[in-house]
């Protein structure tokens, strides 16, 4: 018998990853490992689209609600925790199903990341000051001068990633893309089947818009106000899509209608960046639809069954 099978279910936000993962877990005796960076954090519920309690009851879930909102969870630390959990699932004779759309965390888990230089808060503060003084585009142009390849992969509005990339370039005295290639330790001991959900773009955007409306109706404004009162600006998920726009509403810079539109737009932009990221992986088996579509679920089950049979043979 060959190495055990690890299934990865990925794709853009609102593409139905949870629905497909639950079906696969029930069908093949699996356990689900979260790979969404925001869903790691405790207390943030409405804006994270975490699996509901009834969904979590259908299969064991891991790495949900495991980090304090003020705690930093790096991709490297995520990979360390997730790899430990994968080995535990393997020891139980169960199938691990890694589910989520945070590309960097998934790459860290499957391919490994180089350690890179240590964090430098003074340097980070200077780079953040550049953003406040000159804007996000200026900071991104700085990165383009240091490392054009990294600048092409990181969206100009993703300030934390731009800051980290510049920090590494400056501290390591070389492009961050060169650092990425050093010292990687890929995940071993599993055969990895990557399933990617790729629904029609217009249909996806319709779902994203509806999800944003549902979040506002479910009380994301009240949740955000409560969490800001409890944790302040140190709560990292408050900077994520959805929460960020609600914070602008609470601060009085936009009205409810504008905040709702901006939240939906932010999630649509994020979905576009996710697809750009995942399309670079030639090993993904793309499923042209949503994860809750019975036809897509049947295709996914057929793939998993075939890979399981090949493993046994």
List keywords for this structure.
single chain, 2 domains, alpha/beta, 9% strand, 313 residues, 6-stranded parallel beta sheet, Histone, subunit A, Rossmann fold
Kindly describe this structure.
- There is one protein chain.
- With about 325 residues, the protein is of the alpha/beta class.
- It has 2 domains: about 5-115 and about 185-205 and about 275-310, Rossmann fold (3-Layer(aba) Sandwich), CATH 3.40.50; about 120-180, Histone, subunit A (Orthogonal Bundle), CATH 1.10.20.
- About 55% of the residues lie in helices and about 10% in strands.
- The chain has 14 helices and 6 strands.
- It has a 6-stranded parallel sheet with strand order 3-2-4-1-5-6, with helices on both faces.
- Helix 2 links the parallel strand 2 and strand 3 (about 60).
- Helix 3 crosses helix 4 (about 105-110) and helix 5 (about 120-135) packs across helix 8 (about 160-170).
- The chain is globular and about 60 Å long.
- The mean pLDDT is about 90.
Mean pLDDT: 92
- What name is given to the CATH topology of the largest domain? Rossmann fold
| CA-CA gap between termini | 7 Å
Q: How many domain units? A: 2
Number of strands: 6
How are the elements arranged and paired?
Elements: E1 5-10, H1 17-28, E2 30-34, H2 53-56, E3 61-62, H3 75-91, E4 95-99, H4 103-111, H5 121-134, H6 136-146, H7 148-153, H8 159-172, H9 176-180, E5 191-197, H10 201-218, H11 220-231, H12 243-250, H13 256-278, E6 284-287, H14 294-312
Parallel strand pairs: 1-4, 1-5, 2-3, 2-4, 5-6
């Amino acid at each position: 018998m060959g190495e055990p099978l690890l299934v990865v279910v990925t794709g853009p936000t609102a593409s139905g990853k949870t629905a497909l993962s639950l079906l696969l877990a029930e069908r093949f005796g699996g356990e689900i490992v979260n790979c969404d960076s925001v869903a790691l954090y405790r207390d943030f519920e409405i804006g994270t689209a975490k699996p509901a309690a009834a969904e979590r009851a259908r299969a064991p879930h891991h790495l949900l609600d495991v980090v304090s909102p003020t705690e930093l969870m790096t991709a490297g630390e995520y990979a360390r925790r997730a790899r430990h959990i994968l080995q535990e699932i393997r020891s139980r004779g169960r199938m691990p199903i890694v589910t989520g759309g945070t590309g960097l965390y998934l790459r860290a888990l499957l391919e490994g990341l180089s350690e890179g230089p240590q964090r430098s808060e003074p340097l980070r503060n200077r780079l953040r000051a550049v953003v406040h003084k000159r804007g996000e585009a200026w900071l991104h142009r700085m990165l383009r001068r240091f490392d054009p390849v990294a600048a092409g992969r990181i969206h100009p509005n993703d300030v934390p990633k731009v800051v980290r990339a510049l920090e590494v370039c400056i501290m390591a005295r070389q492009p961050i893309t060169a650092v990425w290639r050093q010292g990687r330790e890929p995940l071993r001991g599993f055969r990895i089947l990557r399933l990617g959900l790729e629904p029609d773009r217009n249909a996806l955007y319709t779902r994203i818009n509806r999800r944003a409306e549902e979040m506002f109706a479910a009380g994301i404004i009240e949740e955000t106000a409560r969490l800001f009162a409890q944790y302040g600006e140190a709560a990292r998920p408050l900077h994520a899509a959805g929460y960020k726009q609600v914070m602008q509403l609470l601060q009085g810079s936009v009205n409810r209608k504008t905040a709702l539109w901006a939240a939906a737009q932010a999630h649509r932009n994020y979905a576009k960046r996710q697809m750009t990221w995942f399309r670079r992986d030639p090993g993904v088996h793309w499923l042209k639809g949503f994860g809750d579509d019975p036809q897509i679920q049947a295709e996914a089950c057929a793939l998993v069954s075939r890979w399981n049979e090949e493993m046994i043979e």
